[in-house]
Amino acid sequence: MSESSNIESTLSEDRHFPPPAEFAQQAHLKSVDGYKALHKRSIEDPEGFWTEEASNQYWFKPWDKVLEWNAPDAKWFVGGKANLCYNAVDRQVSEGHGDATAIIWEAEPMDERGEPIVTKLTYHDLMVETAKFANALKAKGVKQGDVVTIYMGMVPELAIATLACARIGAVHSVIFGGFSSQAIKDRVEDGDSKIIITCDGSYRRGKVVPLKDNVDEAAAQTDLVDTVIVYQRCNNDIAWTEGRDVWWRDAMNAVDDHCPCEEMDSEDLAFILYTSGSTGKPKGIMHTTGGYMVWAAMTSRLTFDLHAGDESEVYWCTADIGWITGHTYILYGILPNRVPTIMYEGAPNHPAPDRLWDMVERHKVTKFYTAPTAIRAFMKWGDEHPRKHNLSSLKVLGTVGEPINPEAWMWYHNEIGGGNCPIADTWWQTETGGHMLTPLPGVTTTTPGSCCQPMIGVDAAVVNSEGEEVGTNEGGILVIRKPWPGMLRGIYGDRDRYIDTYWSKFPIEKGYYVPADGARVDENGNFWIMGRIDDVIVVAGHNIGTMEVESTLVAEGTIAEAAVVGYPHDVKGNGIAAFCIPKGDTPAPGSDEAAALKKQLTAYCAKEMGAICKPDQIRFTQALPKTRSGKIMRRLLRDIAAGKEITSDVSTLEDKSIVEKLQASE
Ligand code: WT7
User: Fold this and answer.
1) Could you tell me if the CB of 327 is within 6 A of ligand 1?
2) Residue ranges of the domains in the chain?
3) Strand, helix or coil at 83?
4) What is the pLDDT of residues 329-362, one digit of tens each?
5) Which of 25, 42, 228, 276 lies 20 to 30 angstroms, CA to CA, from 117?
6) Greatest CA separation found in the chain?
7) pLDDT of 4 strictly over 70
8) Residue 13's pLDDT is what?
9) In angstroms, what is the span from residue 428 Cα to ligand 1's centroid?
């Protein structure tokens, strides 16, 4: 770390990168004054602003009222009728752009001659395929409002299945293909979902991930699932349950391609997407139709400065559709902007560490969106990989998921962006539906490490525990003071938890949405995110609830109690450290027994929760540091996990000798 801290120390906050001149001419928003005026209007005159902005999207029937706000309940574009699939796909066809490329898909494996396998779907293709699959869903009894679980690899059929749900007003619940059977079972039960769309397997670094096996395992633990539609991708051996399982191709062959889009109410539920919380089971974040449609399209257009119909535009977001980033910034925000969106099936380092850069060069990508954790991995793999390729097509770079350290920012800027691509460090959440704080390429003078300024329509502030704005560079609680169209509408089936999680820190009448991130605002008005203020760890850009990992460790059987905290990690941003009290003898640090038990626990976590949830550090201890009131002192554990000196106040600790024991436990 010493080398990187040297570099960082030379990167003071007075490093500023003004928007490149070319953007000042052609960007949607071209100047700071223009941005400021529009932002002000969007906050002071939401009716007027959103009436104009929402008119960029397709409505079967216009709304009667822009907003009804009764904190914490927002209704946007009240009375309007729209359809997310129509707005993303059919609309382009009816406006004469059926032949334009919608999706560019690239497989992970190469063909027999070692050439990449690429499939392009036009808007017309996508319309026909989603209409057919929508009919296939209907034939299986799926109706408007039913929850459809989708657990697939990154194949075009994942986009088709997702859009097909939107087409008929079914609620999709997409589960990231890296999650395990337990995650599927929990989500299926929470959403009362009777149907799962999956693949036999998916390719990841040359290996086959057995998706269908995971679905079988999940379905065996609940009576709910009566239909599993299986897309055959890998030809791997799978078990088959007659009467329940159907091949995708058979389901498609049995139906025609005529299926009009349902006219959905603006506030009809569009999808649920699960995110980890600080306690208990994952939260099913609910997004509705009209507001999300407008928010996804507007934020995509502004942040990436997308120009519909510009033949040179090729957009690529490397996320999986199983995350909100993929929902909004592969599908729902990008397709309505009529810019080809790339879907890549596999790992960034397969068959070689230059895979992504090879793709950027071949597809002449103009806008590229990835995560800081990926950037740190690219840095580790070496500069020679991007340098082998011509990346000059790139115009805007984006990052998402966690704070980007200035060193990684500079590397991205220089090695990938050739020193002249603006970087959009986008801060947002599953809950916000789309970008909330971000630089805009034609406007913002960026500073490495800062997510800069509020999106149009976002009233963000940093406040103290009384809800008063804090001073310049003073840390505090980030809040959003006004509703925005893409905001979550609730947690599926748990009204109390919705209010408790997001709206209870301040009097509810105030209507302050609390994302649970700490932040500060510098003298230039730029926001700096300082990490979570609750028991969620952002690992490789994804929320992991400490409670969930703790429960899993205990469920394995050998551990009586576990405490899980995050600590700084070179590549993943945060690592997961688990302090475990075994039921039996505590194995000595460094012993074979300790190593074996660690392996067993890690494997169990990976199996139960998915690989991203497994602890990076496990320590065995006879006790945990608790206060006299019985609370685990997590700050102390964080210091120990990070190998830092103890800075926490340990005066309330019941047994002070425990600190030394814990420090020696690794
Ligand atoms: C949490 C949300 C947004 C899709 C991916 C993650 C952290 C996200 C940034 C950023 C600093 C960031 C926050 C946030 N986060 N983007 N640019 N800078 N922190 O979605 O799983 O809902 O996680 O990720 O802590 O609250 P998510």
Assistant:
1) no
2) 556-663
3) coil
4) 999 999 999 999 999 999 999 999 999 999 999 9
5) 228
6) 74
7) no
8) 59
9) 5
Q: Is the CB of 369 under 6 A from ligand 1?
A: no
Strand partners, 566: 576
Q: How far apart (Å, rounded) are the C-alpha atoms in residues 356 and 350?
A: 9
Find residue 172's DSSP bridge partners: 148, 271
- Which token pair is 293? 């449609």
Q: What is the mean pLDDT of residues 388-402?
A: 97
Closest C-alpha residue for ligand 1 atom 13? 402
Fold of the CATH domain 556-663: GMP Synthetase; Chain A, domain 3 (3.30.300)
CA distance 515 to 517: 6
**pLDDT at position 555 over 80:** yes
State mean pLDDT over 550-558.
89
The sign of the torsion formed by the CA atoms of 204, 326, 89, 86 equals positive
Q: What tens digit of pLDDT does each residue of 158-217 get? A: 999 999 999 999 999 999 999 989 899 999 999 999 999 999 999 999 999 999 999 999
* Pairwise CA distance, residues 619 & 580, whole Å: 6
Tokens of 525: 């008005």
Average pLDDT, the chain: 93
Nearest to residue 259, comparing CAs of 130, 147, 148? 130
pTM here is: 0.91
Which position has the token pair 């020193």? Answer: 419
Distance CA 449, CA 403 (A): 7
Any ligand 1 atom below 6 A from CB of 517: yes
